[in-house]
Amino acid sequence: MMNGIKAGLELQKISISMGKVYKTLSTLSGKIQDNLDVYDNKDDFYVLAYTCRVAILDRIQANDWIQMQIPIRIPTSMFTSRKETIATGLNLTIGKLKELASSNSTVAYNIEEILQKRKLFYDFEKMLPPNIKDKL
After folding, report:
1. In 3D, which of 80, 106, 63 has the Cα closest to residue 26?
2. pTM for this structure?
């Protein structure tokens, strides 16, 4: 029974994180017109990539949820949500993040480095204050 409860809590954490990333991306997309806007907002992109890696991808991998059709409810505002699967939620978050950053090759490359947990991920993690890391 505890495993089911723990899995449910992990799915809830994933969906909440997806909701936060989704909302932030919606706001950020209004600021992006060209590759210079992407570069000007690169710190936001990197924080979002780090959040996607730690709060979403790491949890999916830790729970071995390869079957991406697991249903989740992603909160989109205080009173609304979207019924999605893990796979479609990844598209709404990581897919949208990559799409928004795609006009600036440097930022897009660095996002991929963070998502893949390469050296930049660990360099970036060292710079983040503990209060940000603890909330993920």
Report:
1. 80
2. 0.90
